[in-house]
Amino acid sequence: MPPPPEQQAVELRSAEAGYPLRPVLRQLTASVPQSAITAVVGPNGSGKSTLLSVLAGVLPLTAGTMERAHTSRPGFVLQRSAVSDTFPLTVRDTVTMGRWAHRGPWRRLTSHDRSVVERCMDRLGISDLAGRQLGELSGGQRQRALVAQGLAQEAGLFLLDEPTTGLDIRAKEGILAVLDGAAADGVTVVQATHDLVAARQADHCLLLRDGRLVAQGAPDVVLTDEALRHIWDFPVAAV
Ligand SMILES: Nc1ncnc2c1ncn2[C@@H]1O[C@H](COP(=O)(O)OP(=O)(O)OP(=O)(O)O)[C@@H](O)[C@H]1O
């Protein structure tokens, strides 16, 4: 049963969005529960990243409505860093950029900012990498630095695009535990993922196909063998 409306962090009604000459999301009516983890699942090109951009407020709706309980800027962790690998940024610099949402890039950091940065690196297990250049890191180390950067924003709504893709089991479990901790602290987490194990651990699931919502609800109700077979047109085991 869906949570009552006052417990929703985001409500989309008949939402449509896309790119010039390419409509993607169609008639999407979906909700994102507060202080919980929502997994957005669907095949390549089904509109997961587009939906995250809508939730982040960086892609406008072309039709329909979106109500967001949070007024502050959401934390948004993209699949790849917006900063080039060749730019000389340390891991600590990268995580510190998460505080710019509060300070702006040119304001001095407060001791609170510094302690948030250190705590976020600690939570992602990258404190020992703090002085290393981002461009020298492995994919998994880099991914943890980007999640730490998003976490450092201390946003009420935390959006992540495939945060566990390409990670080994330990790094993946580490990131999922951090997301669990954030939700327990009251943060609303939304992650787009191809990882059905991660999706099964979420509290709520949105299943997309061709920009339309196929189902939403608890993962064990949404991610059934039949639904996955229907979505991918071939046998994908529900785990
Ligand atoms: N910047 C863009 N300009 C034009 N079309 C885009 C843009 N970004 C995505 N698209 C198109 O929008 C559709 C949905 O893409 P989107 O990235 O949202 O899907 P996705 O479910 O996140 O896919 P994946 O699992 O491959 O990451 C695709 O057809 C894609 O080609």
- N-to-C terminal Cα separation, in Å? 22 Å
CATH architecture of the largest domain: 3-Layer(aba) Sandwich
Assembly type: single chain
**Broad structural category:** alpha/beta
Major sheet: order of its strands? 5-6-7-3-8-9
Beta-strand proportion: 25-35%
Number of helices: 9
Number of strands: 9
Instruction: Return Rg in Å.
Output: 18 Å
Low-confidence runs: none
- In the CATH hierarchy, what is the class of the largest domain? Alpha Beta
Q: If you average the pLDDT, what whole number results?
A: 89
Query: From N to C, what is the helix and strand string?
Result: EEEHEEHHHHEHEHEEHH
Main sheet attributes: strand count, strand direction, barrel closure: 6 strands, mixed
Which ligands are bound? adenosine-5'-triphosphate
Query: What is the number of independent domains?
Result: 2
CATH T-level fold name of the largest domain: Rossmann fold
What is the CATH superfamily of the largest domain? P-loop containing nucleotide triphosphate hydrolases
Taken from the alpha-carbon principal axes, the silhouette is globular
Portion in helices: 25-40%
Could you explain how this protein is built, in words?
The structure is a single chain. The protein starts with 7 loop residues before the first strand and ends in a 7-residue tail after the last helix. The protein has 239 residues and is an alpha/beta fold. Strand 6, helix 6 and strand 7 form a beta-alpha-beta unit. The protein is globular. The chain is built from nine helices and nine strands. It has a six-stranded mixed beta sheet with strand order 5-6-7-3-8-9, sandwiched between helices. Strands 2-1-4 form a three-stranded antiparallel beta sheet, with helices on one face. It has helices spanning 48-56, 91-96, 100-103, 111-123, 139-152, 169-184, 196-200, 219-222, 225-232, and strands at 8-19, 22-33, 37-41, 63-68, 75-77, 157-161, 188-192, 204-209, 212-217. The chain folds into two domains: 1-74 and 155-239, 3-Layer(aba) Sandwich (Rossmann fold), CATH 3.40.50.300; 80-154, no CATH class. Adenosine-5'-triphosphate (ATP) binds next to strand 2 and helix 1.
